[in-house]
Prior knowledge:
The strands form 4 sheets. A 7-stranded mixed sheet has the order 1-2-4-5-6-9-10. It has 9 helices and 18 strands. The chain is of the alpha+beta class. About 30% of the residues lie in helices and about 25% in strands. Zinc ion (ZN) binds near residues 142, 144, 145 and 296.
Amino acid sequence: MNILKTSLFASLCAAAALGFNMQVHAADIPQQQQVAGFYQHQLGNTQITALLDGTNFMSPALFKDISPDKVQEILKKYHADQAKGVQTSVNAFLVNTGKSLTLVDSGTADCFGAHLGSVLKNLKAAGYQPEQVTTILLTHLHPDHSCGVSKNGIANYPNATIYVSADEANYWLNPKQAEKITADKRANYLGTVEKIKAALAPYQAKKQFKTFKLGDKIGEFEVISTAGHTPGHFSYKLKTAGEDVIFIGDIVHSHTVQFDRPETAIEYDIDPKMAVQTRLKQFPDYAKHGQTIAAPHSPFPGIGHIYSADGKSYQWIPVHFKD
Length: 323
Ligand SMILES: [Zn+2]
């Protein structure tokens, strides 16, 4: 044993005596990325593919009419990671009835940065081609739901017709509306309008953009008015041979704070009072009937149920993994 080997041997013995594990340092093995991107959920003959756009983090200060202490208490109760903010998922859903392929909401494309915008990539990874999508149902026109339909003026789903409620289209696309927005909110509104218009333009140019009103049916989907978060916000209900599913849209943004305390509005709500009323109307109904729901901002895959023990506070019950 030469001097170097002797001293190394001595160090190893010393380390072993101190209880160090000299075989592998944790840092020697690189950690790997999360791979979740799509999730197949079967309902009767219909397959719903949840598509992850990405994960977003919200400031706890965005919650309204609730004390910061109460927000922290709820987040703590649900072990909600707080390091970067309140975690929310951005999900879209692809519905395959066997005869048609419908996309419900479309994610952000590049409207919010590189941490989001993966719906199209994940749709392809799930085994589908964007050309197969013939219908896109938008719950509302906020850019985290509408931007994903196109990129740089080119339709991501060239054979699809987009549907949105007439009230929603009027609020964002009617130039006269801007005059009704209060001065403090106008710049933000106009910035959002710009993103929405750019996303929809290739579809409007080819007359593949349509509006609907309450009572209309789009293919096999019924429309449910859930205004408040935006003026023309709608949810979509699909009856399948197995059970019904409702694509709820943004009637809720936080599976922790707004489930635990559903009276809590969020800064993104255009009419916070009405948004709360809508949630307080829909949640008891969904809880009572064991309704399967698909939610764009619940943790991926965003499919699950609502439970309430007392009719006041609710819990998000995610679907159980099935392979
Ligand atoms: Zn949203």
